[in-house]
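User: My instructor asked us to take a sequence, write out its structure as tokens, and then describe one feature of it. I'm not sure where to start. Here is the sequence I was given:
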Amino acid sequence: MAKVLVIGAVGQIGTELTVALRKKFGGQSVIAATRKTAFPEEIAAGGPCEYFDVLEKEKMKEVVKKHGIETIYQLASLLSATGEKNPDAAFDINLLGLKSSLDVARECKVKKIFWPSSIAAFGPTAPHEGTPQRTVLEPTTMYGVTKVAGELLCQYYFRKYGLDIRSVRYPGLISYKAEPGGGATDYSVAIFYEAIKNRSYRCFVGPQTVLPMMYMPDAIRGTIELMGAPSERLTVRTSYNLAAISFSAMELADEVARLIPGFTCSYEPDSRQQIADSWPKSIDDSQARRDWGWKHEYDLRRMSEDMVKNLKTKLLGQ
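Assistant: Let's start with the prediction itself. The structure tokens for your sequence are:
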């Protein structure tokens, strides 16, 4: 069985992706890696685990050789709002960490690599409605800068070295398993937590703020489907647009209020509003749908119902 390495396996995406990959390929075939001091029990008990920083190239190479890794999912990243607080760290982890991974993959003859880009790669000069696959990329955050540079780096390594690197531009991701992790779309997760715990939420973007979002099960499934697609069908070697649903902060709050009687939401935009305003409102992902059959399954209502159901179990034991 081919061996898989997930770098950043305890992050927002990595936690759920690791579990899904182990379910698909078997626990012993998927190695979880983090630089943090402890793995969640679900990850620690489910298969092999390794500790290294994404910038520790030689340590990464040791792990790849030790386990005979054939596929790498490189997920280590600082998100948008956190990255603005520490742009130097964001540059090092997001971009230099990617280059370390690509160099290790090239030197160790790894067959496939996944790396996540983001809608943060777009900026205020890109079309905000139906943002196309190929358009101007002029982000205004360090997070976005590292994503644009990372996309081009992936394409360069594919063209120059033949590395099979695959990527998607994730929209805002919503999950009941992963708590908010420092992104400008975190209100879409925090609102559910606060609604269940306190029946109220103070939103850090305005009520009319519209952003592309996706429920985590769709994101995980889409990622695995992309990695399983035949190479010859892929026409994008920077990063595929990936879309599901777009809604305003108020529309989300109304849906939460429908499911949790008595819930109220107030709005106090902060510095994250400016980041959100620079991003698209909706994404054209027709290229992904044509090339490898991408199709989302969760709309706003279905996602919200599943979030509330699972968070009540998680937070209240109901």
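For the description part of your assignment, you could build on this observation: The chain has two domains: 3-172+215-241, 177-213+244-282+299-316. Try explaining in your own words what that tells you about the chain.
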